[in-house]
Amino acid sequence: EAGVTQFPSHSVIEKGQTVTLRCDPISGHDNLYWYRRVMGKEIKFLLHFVKESKQDESGMPNNRFLAERTGGTYSTLKVQPAELEDSGVYFCASSQGSGTRWAGELFFGEGSRLTVL
Amino acid sequence: AQSVTQLDSQVPVFEEAPVELRCNYSSSVSVYLFWYVQYPNQGLQLLLKYLSGSTLVKGINGFEAEFNKSQTSFHLRKPSVHISDTAEYFCAVSLYFGNEKLTFGTGTRLTIIP
């Protein structure tokens, strides 16, 4: 079974440009999360999808960030326009189960490293 | 708001020696606790979790952790480390049952010295 895959693994762009990160969760996982780690700091929650719906987007930094999850499958995270402080590693994670079936385990991708110059 | 503190950013340990990675959290409500590990060039992987029940939790690769509610701690231990344990370890908490909106610590980089 394929794990969570993210593309690209590394992106280098200039300030003001646009970048789109993609995440393919494990097949059948309804929950999809985006997290971000700025260098040397903690991994921070960005948002949570349940199928195609945004369940919680309280961690999104500002309106330059737009996340979508088409048909409840893969997800994209677009940064437009990118700023220097957006540099970091963006992790996608997925999980299955909720309520009494909650296993409490997130499956992470390897991350997309974004460098804004 | 809850927070997680990992006091040690880097821990060097000789091979076959024991190790303890410290994690403290602050929260006014009950929490669910996790340790994740990130091996070089890989994604994070669940090491162990405390959801309820016994406060001593055993995970993969010989690791264990003990939930101490009075000290608000969830320290990770292994009696004898191996070179393959070289990785970064993250402690995390969730306030909500059934939800993986996690608050992470800043991570501890464990280096095993041969």
Please write out the topology.
The complex is a heterodimer of chains A (about 120) and B (about 110).
Chain A lengths: L4 E3 L2 E4 L5 E6 L6 E7 L5 E8 L2 E4 L8 E5 L5 E5 L8 E8 L11 E2 L3 E5 L1
Parallel strand pairs in A: 2-11
Antiparallel strand pairs in A: 1-3, 3-8, 4-5, 4-9, 5-6, 7-8, 9-10, 9-11
Chain B lengths: L2 E3 L4 E5 L4 E3 L2 E3 L5 E7 L5 E7 L5 E3 L5 E5 L4 E6 L8 E8 L8 E2 L3 E6 L1
Parallel strand pairs in B: 2-12
Antiparallel strand pairs in B: 1-4, 3-9, 5-6, 5-10, 7-8, 8-9, 10-11, 10-12
How would you describe what is shown here?
The complex is a heterodimer of chains A (117) and B (114). Chain A is mainly beta and 117 residues long. Chain A has a single domain (5-98), classed as Immunoglobulins (Immunoglobulin-like, Sandwich). Helices cover 0% and strands 49% of the residues of chain A. In chain A, the strands form two sheets. In chain A, strands 2, 4, 5, 6, 9, 10 and 11 form a seven-stranded mixed sheet that branches. The model of chain A has no long low-confidence stretch (mean pLDDT 93). With 114 residues, chain B is an all-beta fold. Chain B has one domain: Immunoglobulins (Immunoglobulin-like), CATH 2.60.40. Helix content of chain B is 0%, strand content 51%. Chain B is built from no helices and twelve strands. In chain B, strands 2, 5, 6, 10, 11 and 12 form a six-stranded mixed sheet that branches. Chain B has a four-stranded antiparallel sheet with strand order 3-9-8-7, with no helix packed on it. In chain B, strands 1-4 form a two-stranded antiparallel sheet. Chain B is globular and about 40 Å long. The mean pLDDT of chain B is 93. The chains are: A mainly beta (117), B mainly beta (114).
